[in-house]
Amino acid sequence: AEGGRREAAPELADSALRATLAELQHGLMQPQARVSPKFLYDSRGCDLFEQITRLPEYYPTRTEAAILADSGPAMAEALRGSEVLIELGAGNCEKVRGLCRSLRPRHFVGVDIAGAFLRQSVRRLAEEFPQLQAHAVTADITEPLALPPYIPQAGRLLFYPGSSIGNFDPEQAQRMLGQMRALLSDDGGLLIGIDLPKPIQWLEPAYDDAQGVTARFNLNLLSHVNHLLGSDFNEGDWEHVAFFNTEHSRIEMHLRARRPLIVGWPQGLRHFAAGETIHTENSYKYPLPDFLDMLACAGFGACQVWTDERQWFAVIHAHA
Ligand code: AVJ
Question: What is the pLDDT of residues 136-145, one digit of tens each?
Fold first, then answer.
């Protein structure tokens, strides 16, 4: 399609925009084209992800919520003294409410790449918990994270729920766990949710639901990329694909070209053959022992694990 090219995202700062454009272009020009899953989360993407968490097929959110609710008192005991609750990828700040109630921390820090959405959620949380000093930090948590100097060092609990760590390949996940450990002094800890391996008949529908919400979520990435890059992707030219890659123990999401396509943007273009894909997301399902090894390698100490009766999902507290 011609004539659809716009100026690239004018609201981003120059250097951030240059880095984003370089990253997008580089991924799109690879033999197996790819776009990072972080580009799924523009404001429409955040709304669609919230809808996904309520789908009957999407078990992770409600399974984790049930674990957090059912293990409440035992968990609160294990997490005693956590004065500074820091949620990575906080999004709508929905999951942290229970912890705010049971732990009564003095500070909450929400960290997320989607700044405007985050600030709104943090504002709502602050209204609900008037004693809480609530802060919003807009950051890409894959980058080494520096927290503002007014966040106390002692008594930090990092909260990384939702199996978001599953989006990263094992090497990067290992690196990120190391970065998390580096944010903590010896009295700190990490509370992390991970999705566990299970039969494909449950895994695949969770990422390819009957109502097509996940398909819209995946396709929306193209509109976000158009906005950032000034490209001329048409959602209608692409099809949502999700499957479990057994060898790597991960769900893969792709967008598949329905016909031969030429996609252009101000600095380049790419031909796609019919059936060629853009890889948009991995969602790793780590066996629990493997993940506990990764925590130990990152320098974490004793771990306590809570899970559901089917062992579909685990919430792990790792001491610094
Ligand atoms: C937010 C990364 C945990 O991998 O399950 C949901 C994202 N992608 N449906 C996941 C997602 C498609 C989700 N995480």
Answer: 999 988 888 8
Which atom, in ligand 1's list, is nearest to the CA of 89? Answer: 1
What's the 221 CA to ligand 1 centre distance in angstroms? 14
pLDDT in tens, 10-58: 556 678 889 999 999 999 999 999 999 999 999 899 999 999 999 999 9
Of 117, 106, 112, the C-alpha closest to 157 is: 106
> Which protein residue's CA is at the shortest distance from atom 5 of ligand 1?
283
3-state SS, residue 142:
coil
Count of CB atoms situated within 10 Å of the CB of 294:
19
Predicted complex ipTM: 0.99
Question: Largest Cα–Cα distance of the chain, in whole Å?
Answer: 61
- How many CB atoms neighbour CB 76 within 10 A? 16
Task: Tell me the C-alpha distance between 122 and 34, whole Å.
Answer: 32
Summarised one tens digit per residue, pLDDT across range 113-126 is 888 889 999 999 99
Atom 12 (ligand 1) nearest CA = 207
Q: Whose CA is nearest to atom 2 of ligand 1?
A: 164
Q: Is the pLDDT of residue 5 over 80?
A: no
Residues 6+ apart with CB under 8 A from 174: 294, 297, 298
